[in-house]
Amino acid sequence: MVFYRTSYDIFTAENKEFGCLVDELLNECSENDIVTRLIFFGKPRNNQEYATRLAMIREKVKEKFVDACPAVSYVAQRPLVGELVLEVYRVGADFEGKIEYCDYKGIHYLRIEDDEHRELVIGSLQGKDLNSGILQQSDEVFADLGELLEKENCNIHSIVRQWNYIERITAFNGDHQHYQDFNDSRSHFYARTDWPEGYPAATGIGTQLGGVLVDVNAIIPKLPHFRCVPLDNALQVAAHAYSQEVLLGTEDQVFKEKTTPKFERAKAIVGAERGIVYISGTAAIRGEQSLTDVGILVQTGTTMENINYLISEENLNKVGVQPDGPCQLEMLRVYLKNPEDVTAVKVYMEHLFTKVPISYLLADVCRDELLIEIEGIASFVVKE
Q1: How do residues 143-196 score in pLDDT, each as one tens digit?
Q2: Which of 27, 157, 186, 247 pairs as cysteine with 258 (C-beta 3.0–4.6 A)?
């Protein structure tokens, strides 16, 4: 058994009552599919409605999948194409390993294992009160994550991909910026271990509601050739090496500075025959400075240049990864600050990628001046 292949689909629905939208999207999943993760994107009116809709989604997923429920998340981001969007992660038909469906303190996750690795797919880590402060919610999320990883005998540095959804990410509560409060909480959590294979790939993105929501993939290699490799971008300063000048908010009382966003630009997961690249949320940044006053299409083009470099054979070769040909993009997620930009960006992206599933979502990026952020997943065949 070798590192399994995952396929990715994006479906949209609209013009129906919310429960009917969920049913329509879930009907896109066959009972024969091995689904590992479902992510819904929608626009609730307030956090009470968000919680009600999340509960409805979980109930309907349970009805459909029974004892084989995937990890499920509901992200409060308004879709710019469709009314409700669903991302589906499916294990390929060639999968010969073992999947266990687990729960810990109300957190549902999957334990996936083959000959090469063991993986945890964790969905919907959230604070106890969606209306409490971002720092408190973040601390609660990381406390739960730490307990779950310890239960699974999995070191914190096994996290390879982390999605961080933060309500009103660039807003301030007094002198405290929401994103900086989250970064400080994450830095304390990550400081509990060393990171010999680099930090995870990650996205830190704004939501309209929903407090703090974190999804995680963690991997424990079982064979020496199976590697989790950080990828850098020579065109950008590593996010975890940003200077204090580009960070906002107040300094952390323990670290005595504003802590940096702890993530790598991308992370390659390399098995004996195939590999994937988790592409972190990527924007129009050169060095550590944002490109400003250049317009949406220039920012989009610069963002794609950054992504194309990250997954290039040249960049993978730098860290000892030998793909047999170019990486293939499997899916992309596009976050836009301004809804009026979606038409131009959609034309631009779909001219480049005719067969790649792409979602378009309204979200504040982690810097006010950035109009777009793009993340994705790519795959490659390992050279013999």
Answers
A1: 999 999 999 999 999 999 999 999 999 999 999 999 999 999 999 999 999 999
A2: 247
pLDDT at site 19:
98
Instruction: List the domain range (segments joined by +) for residue 359.
Output: 6-381
CA–CA separation, 382 and 211 (whole Å): 40
Whether 177 is covered by a domain: the verdict is yes
Which residue type, as a one-letter code, is found at position 352?
L
Does the residue 271 lie in any domain?
yes
Rounded CA-CA distance 171/265 in Å is: 24
Which candidate, 371, 373, 375, 206, places its Cα nearest to that of 294?
371
CATH number for the domain harbouring residue 26: 3.30.1330.40
Q: State the total domains in the chain.
A: 1
> At a CB cut-off of 8 Å and minimum separation 6, what does 231 contact?
264, 265, 266, 267, 268, 277, 310, 311, 315, 316, 319
Task: Please give the Cα distance from 164 to 293 (Å, whole number).
Answer: 27
pTM value > 0.85 = yes
pLDDT tens, 95-104?
Answer: 889 999 999 9
β-pair type (84-91, 98-104): unpaired
Rounded distance, CA 302 to CA 311, Å? 15
Q: How far apart are CA 47 and CA 70, in angstroms?
A: 24
pLDDT value of residue 1: 44
Residue appearing with tokens 């629905």: 13
Is residue 1 a part of any domain in this protein?
Answer: no
Question: What SS3 class is residue 192?
Answer: coil
Task: Please check whether residue 164 is in contact with residue 182, taking contact to mean a CB–CB distance below 8 angstroms.
Answer: yes
pLDDT band at 360 (very low <50, low <70, confident <90, very high): very high
**Residue 106 within a domain:** yes
Q: What is the pLDDT of residues 17-31, one digit of tens each?
A: 999 999 999 999 987
